[in-house]
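User: Round two. Same drill as before: sequence, then structure, for each protein.

Assistant: Same drill it is. First protein:
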Amino acid sequence: MFSLLSKTAPIQKESESNSRVFFLDLNLDQILDKVSTEWGEEIRSLYEVFPENRETEEYRREIYSDIKKDEVYSAMMGYYGKIKERKLFAERGEKAYETLQTQAWYLREACSYIDAMETLKEELEKAPLSSEGMKGLLAFIGECISGESYNRLKEEALALRNELADFRVLITYEKERITITDGKGSGNFEDFLEGLFPGHDKKFTNPFIDSEVFSNLEEEIIRLYRKKHKEFFKRLDKFFKNNHEYLHEGVEELEQEMVYYLAYAKFQKKMEERGFIFCTPVYSEEKLMATGLYDLALKLVNAEQGKDVISNEAYLGSGERFFVLTGPNQGGKTTYARSLGQMIYLGKMGLDVPAETAQLPYYSNLWTHFSVEESTESGRGKLMDELERLKPIMEKDQEGAFVVINELFTTAANYDANIMGKRVLEHLIGLNCRGIYVTHLIELASSYPEVVSIRANVDKELKQTYKIERSEAGEITGTDRQAYKYGLTYEQLKERFS
């Protein structure tokens, strides 16, 4: 079955033990709240499933590059609008009390489906498609609308719709009596009003479709129609009974997959209008590189307050595996780690990333481990909780993953934390993982040849610049930084004695 999200296998649900943790750690939940807010909760599940391999990541990336093109985006959004219309008609039909109402809504529903498929095919044929996936979508739609059952559905539905559109009723109110007779004419009501009152902006809304229950007037109109147009109502009844499952197999799943791309594309377009920068990452065998990298979740919050965020760069060359990030407290270390994790996540999903330029290797998975408050429920203490949460990241099947670690082993003595931190780095490097380790332990920055030392900088007045650059880890200067080094800040003392 054709899919816009996978080249080879059906999309599977992601286990909560993986996706839920890094979504919260990296503030991805905040980003996806903005992405999916007008598209429904069901779309969120598709953002929790990583592509099964590098080829599928590239498959999605190429599709997304096509969807961003104005002609393709417009065609897909038009199709989505007709999908919403079709589903609305289906809901109205399910609520209807009268069989005739159900049948009429069903006819509208089928016609919306036909209009959506025909229009999308026509517009995609004119669009500049370059991706395998979008060309596959066009072929799939062509297959859907070329079958005998579809063409029979189309012929019957459009004939019924056109005939129904030409029905006219004349309602006369005179001397406190309402007279209903068969009317004459063709075309829509707006054109009729234009003939009577030229130059006015007319908008006609059918007054008989707001309720699921017929009024007395509506019942009389239906009685008249049934008497005058018996053959039509027989054909409508037959159409309803013979075409009860008109959707081509796989169309509903495909509609949701389209929304996966459209939701992010619409979000990105809105953010770019507000000055946000995104780029399409390029695959790199060994090198991780980004310029103009920023924390998208933080920028969304700051934008509402009229504040900006500091962008940074990232570079891991061949043979380099882990950033070890040190520097003053509140210097932007966690924000930088999150920005890296967000870039890896969005890149893996085949979407554009928040940066000016980006080159990314393929990573088998994404894991995070952020310091949290000690759990009073488990009774194990914070260190044991950290080790328990670290366990799945250290499994052998996580080879080639990207790992974001933020302040590990903070409750252990520095000597012990250094030893355990080095063991963690050694193990992950041995699994060919890449990542970033945020820590106050400057010794970790020079622990292995594969480790790159980066540091949160301060200016000459010892104020944070929030710029992260390659630099040897050094002693934290200033009295407040000396307090931090020896674990005497308020937060550290509170944590130690809690």
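Second protein:
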Amino acid sequence: MTQMTVAERQRNKRLLADEAVKLAMQNRWQEAEEKNRDILHATPDDVEARNRLGKALSELGRYREAYDEYSVTLQSDPANVIAQKQVKRLQLLAEQGQSDVPNEARRKLDPKLLVEETGKTGVFPLPNKASQGILARLAAGDELFLQVEGATVHIVDDRGDVLGELPSKDGSRLVKLMAGGNRYVAGVMSVGDRELRILVRELYQDSTLVGKVSFPTRSTGQSSVHAHLRAGLERRDIDEDDMAIDDADDDAGEGEEEVEEVPNDLDDMDGDSGSRDN
């Protein structure tokens, strides 16, 4: 049987990596795990595939296995930023007593819902009101929920933990619009040690509220989890948990907090990407 040339092997590796990234973008984590294991079987030193496998295992609630995979990455590439942050996060989960939850259903939003749209979406940085252990569970793309209390809108996770609240002006506006029949969905854009960044999207506008804009001052373009994940497809590496939605987050200067981000949870690439700030 004719052996594949180096170019053919590289092309095959690239195709498999693209498939693995697409599975992650679709939140098909079991299949993503299997695809990345196939890649690693052929190329055990593939750091990007190792990080993607760690991400898939983390999303499946298999934290100890995820920790082991990221640790392998650090053995061969100690400067790998993705693996460094994930090992730190998984250690924190262990310290907080959060063991493996392999049957836990992670509630993820369709990445299309996290695309910013003028008037329909609002992006909010929430001061950290949750414990580090709670934040360590979160990843870009996770679904969040709006909980109304008077004129205040609290943001809670799928376990009911309060993560913060919307600014009073935005919150009181949404309370009135929801009372009028509008419906909204929320999700994680990025998460770091000191700040959680979320997106709230108008899903449905009641006929009585036509002409009433949900987020009149928000018009920040099309940066999104989905856009970041697409970039991951081109760069060959993905770790939604470490994604920063905006390029500005990726290029943050020294001393600034590195912000997670997609899933894409979802990542970075091109050979030396693992050592680049994500």
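Residues 119 and 215 are 5 Å apart (CA to CA).

User: Perfect.
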